[in-house]
Structures are given as C-alpha cells and as structure tokens.
Design brief:
CATH topology of the largest domain: Glutaredoxin
Strand content: 25-35%
Number of helices: 10
Radius of gyration: 42 Å
CATH superfamily of the largest domain: Glutaredoxin
Largest sheet: 9 strands, mixed
Length: about 725
Amino acid sequence: MKKQKFSKFIYAFLSMCLIIIGCSESEPNKDTDNEDIYNNEKQAEIVNKLRDAGANGLFIKDISQSDNKYKITLTDNSTYDIILFTYSASNNLVREINSDDYSVVFSLCSGDKFEIRHEDYLRVNFSSEYIAISPGETKEIAFTVESRGDVTVESTATAGASVSLNFDKQTGHGSLKVSTSDNSGKEYVAVVISNKKRIITRRIDFEEYQLKIVDNTNKTVSEQGGYLSVEFLSNTDYELNISSEGNWISLHDSREPQKKTLTFSVAPNEGESRQATITISAHGGELSLTYTVIQETNLAYQLALEREILVNFYKSTNGDNWHDSYNTNCNENWLSDKPVGTWYGIKTDEKGRVTELRFTSDGLSGILPDNICKLRNLKVFRVVGNKEMAGTIPPDMNQCPDLETFYLESSNITGEIPPELFKCKKLKYVLLGFLNITGTVPETLGEAESLEFLGWAGTKIEGPIPKSVGRLKKLQKLYIHQSLTSDLSEELSQCENLKIISMYGCPIKSLPQSLGKSLIHVDMQDCGIEGKIPPPMLENDELWHMSWGYIVHGNRLDIGIQDVPPLYFASIHDFDRNEYSSKDIFSQNRLTVFITWETWCPASEATIIRLRDLYAEYSVKGLGIYGFTGAGSSEAKKYNKEHGVSWPTFSNLESAFYRSSEMLPNLYSPEHYEYCEPVYPYSGYVPIVTMFDSAGNVVWSDCFNSPSEMVCFIEDYFADAD
C-alpha cells in the first residue's frame, strides 16, 4: 500500500471538507450558503482527489455520485454509500477521516464512525501482552481476531513451557492455556495469526509477579476529608484491606484486576490528627504494599489546643516574671483573647497555627513543658539565654514534622538528647549549648537527612559522633567545642558538603585520614592532636589559607613550614585605597612580613616598634612589611602615625584575607551571616607575624612571638642573602 500518498490525500480531503462544510450545530442559511458549498467546481475537486487515491493503487476502486451521496467501490467489489454533504445540519455530515493500511474510518458529526475495511484486513487483540506466572503454574490468556478472510492461528512455546490453543473461527474468540516448568526462566509463547494475505506474530513473555510502589506510601489528607488516590504497579490481581481504625476511609471507585489507581473517600475530621493503614496484597498474600494515611487535625480543634499549650508554657516558665536585660516585661498580650500570633515570642501562619517560638534572654524560669511537641506546625524552636529554666528536652519533637530549627542554649536543662529529635525529616539547624545534658549523641542522628548545622558546646555529652553521621549529605557546619571525648568518626568524611568544623578544646588524638576535601575552615585549637595531617587537608590550599593558625595552635602535628602552600590573592586595598596583589607584593620584596595587630594589645605595640626599626634598616635591601588590623581606618591611621609606621595597612574585615565575597556564617548563629572568619595565617590571637619569600611561601611564623627571635630571623635572612 502507498500509505504516504493516501495519508496526504486524506489530509487534503479532510481540510477541504472542513473548509467547505464544517460541523455546524445550526442549520445553514439555505439562501446564501448552499450555493457556495455545493458549487460544481468544489464538488469536482473533492471527487477528483478520491479518484486519485484509487489510481495510486489503494483499495478504493471507484467513486460514483448520486446527489450528495457518494458510492465507494473497493478492489474486492464491495460497495459503500457515504453521505458527504447535506442541505441541513444532518448528523451524517462528515467531520473527520482517518486511515491506515487496514481501513478508512469516516467520523460523523453525530459521534458515529463508519469503517471501510481493506480486503486483507486483520487485527488481533490479546487480553495481556505478558503473563505473570510462577514456576509450575498454569495461566490462560484470551484473544480476539477480526478479519475479512479465513483465519488460521498457530502457537508455540519455548523449552520448559507448554501451550494449548483454542480458537473459534466463527466468533473470532480464542484462548491460550500456558504452563511453565518448575525451573522456568526466560520463557515465552509465540502466536502466529494469518488470513493468507496478512500475517501477525505476537510474543507473549512470562514475568514474575510484581507489586511495586509508584508514589510515597505515606499519605496526608486535610481535616476536611475528600478523596485519596493510591498508585501502584501490579501484573496480577490483588486484595485490599483497610485497618480497623480506618473506618473513616472507604473505597470510592470500582476495582478491576488491571487497574493501577484506587481512589478512597475520606471523611472529615473533627478532632486530633488520626492515622490508619491501607494494605494491598497480591499473589495469595506473598506480595503486599502498606500505605499509611494521616489526616490532619481539625483546624478549630488545633487552634484551641495550641492556645492551651501556650498557656501551659507561660505558667510553667513563670511568665508573669519574664523580662529582658533592660528589665522590660516580655509577656505582651499573653493570656489575652488576641490571636496568639500577637503574643510576645510567637509567630503563626496564615491559618493562625503556631510556627515559631523564640525567647532570647527573656527571664524564663521554671520547667520547660514536654507538650511543646504538640505544636504540630512548629518550624522554629529557639529558647536561649534563660539560665534559670530547667526540665528536659521535649522527648517527642518528631511530632512536629515541619521543624527546621531547634536551639536550646544557656539554661539548666538536664537529661539526654532524645533520639526522636533527629527523626524530624526537615530539621536543618540544631544547637545545644551550655546545658547540663549528659549521655551520647544518639545513632538516629543519621535520619536527619536535611541537617545543615549541628552544634553542641559546654555540655556533658561524651563519646564519639555516631557513624550514622556519614548519611548527612547536606551537613555544612559542625560545632562541638569542648564536648567530644573520642576521635572523629571516619564516616564524617562521607559528608560531601561539610565546609566548617569547629572543635577547639576537644581532647582528641587524631583525625580521619580521608577528611578535608570539602572543608574551607577548621578550628581545632588546643585539642592536643598528634601525628600527621590527613592528605586531603594538606592538599586543600583554600583550607590552609583559611585555617592554618586554627589547625596548628595547641597541637603536636607532624608538619613543617615547607608544607604550607603559597599564599595568593588577586586584589586588596589599604586604608588609602591603594590596590595590591600577592604577585606584586611578594615579587618586589626579598622578604615580606605580614603582621596582624590590634590597638589595644601591648604585645602588638612591642612587635610593631621592633619591626619599625628593622624596616628602617632593611627596606632598601628588600624587606616589605604589611599590617592587618580590625581597627577602623581613622583609628589605625592615628595609631600608625603615633608609632612611626610607614608601611601599608589593611582592614581585616575589608581585605581578601577575610573572604569578603564568601562570608562565612557566624559559627554560633548559623542561620545568619554576621561576620567572616579571618584568613591565613590567623588563630584568633594577636600579634601574628608571618614571613614570606618572593614566591609567597611561608618561611617563618609565630603567635605571641618573641620579638628577639623575629629580629634574629630577619637579620640572618638578609645576612645570608648578602
């Protein structure tokens, strides 16, 4: 068949029909429209296209016309009368024509279809294109055959399987009974159907039974009820069971064996959140899926409950005595009839549900109540600086599924970290600081997969960080000051986004040897760490530029000056707005000295005076000195003038040494970006003196330096150079 040419004709013919006659819902104007629709020229054009199709070898043999009716004769001498035009809005008006190698289908405006079949027409429909079957099992598949000629059906099966065929030529209905061996593997059945002019071959594969999840098995519906859809994949019949406590859930639509979506009706909820399960079982109970359905708490009920919880919180923490550092009362609107969102320290969403509870140094005392966890929409819990508040960490915070921030700091809270805290899937920030909590960090830590910041400091928590920490792929900052009694877990290296570790004063002896690739800042001062630095840390130039002093101070590491990478920065500006780069600074000097100092520091003053004298003697021989300070421009200039300093001075906070383009968050307030940590080489103390050769390599560095040692090094350096 020349299908392409026939398709082009059909498209043109259909377009012409739509242009000329269209599908009208009202009777055309007999005085104006009919003449245009049925003029001889346009009728002839349509008829010629039909005859062209017959001339191109398609199965249309002839077209003849009688009034507005066309008789189409096929190559097998079958004839059909088709009404293409009418003088009224007749239902016989042709709307669309579709074709393939088997037939031409005329779609009428009435919605009916008229099909002209080719003489070798043959179609086969199987009830299934696959068989879900177990070894040694027997299954039956039905099929139907449509044909314009005599039909034969043959079947065969792969080794290990058998098939029996039953086919009724009169009705076109048939079936295949298939059996597999006890050791069935990749088996299938092949079926061949023929009417002497066409042959159709189908392969029906055997598959193992399947019952698989399409979407999440945890379903949440609103308090108002409505409909719930459950989607799954199945190639076998299945059974349905709703748990006894789910009498508020009912199947909404009828179920067919092949249906993959079930819709349930859910009754409205007038009280607290409730839960039930839906179980779908298949293949005699060997396969099953269980869906957990949670319906939200009724809004009116929830708002009343939350008000009651807050009133209890107020009374438990002596709300009448709340006050800030200025002795100002901090209980505005509490216990009033006003919306709780107007109560001091409380924020709500658009429905009035509590989302934030924030109290910072507001004089809370008494006991922190456990029922805070029933504020189901709580996102932020931040209670810090209330030293007289006691109690324990609420044990069931996982009842707050939206919880993102949990800060509890500087109070008399006791007990242990409840494992449930880390079961909050949206939890991002956790800080437990200066509390009397004990025990260890629970293994459930790894379940908080959204966690970005984790900190505990000034607590009595002991032991290692759980190995499950390796599951925290989003963790960026770890803050554990003086609160770790075991070496860091090797699994910490699996936290691929970890950028900052602050653990000063933790009595650990070594570091995981795979740690350091993603880090940009490490503070491990005064930990007493011995031995070698992990290779990824040594190879991480950015980390060294950021944290060298924080790494080496108070540790006994096997590392020398020669291991520190060269310093590089593209552009910084001094207080007079002169621009410098590391390339220019180091290349134009034999020896470059960086001093970090502060106006209030006597040791800084002593060091600057000694450097001033050395600069006067050796600047002509290639000694360059550059100062970095946290003082403001006017204060620094005044200080330099008083001490006879003539070298360039930079602001730490404005220079490249403070990563001004990528400001690090305050480690103690990880939600905010309040300041940046100083960069290379700085340990948090002053004065710091570091010396570089002409290539930017560190040749000498010291904190709390001995001025005499610094002087000797510079004098010897230039003596050797001479």
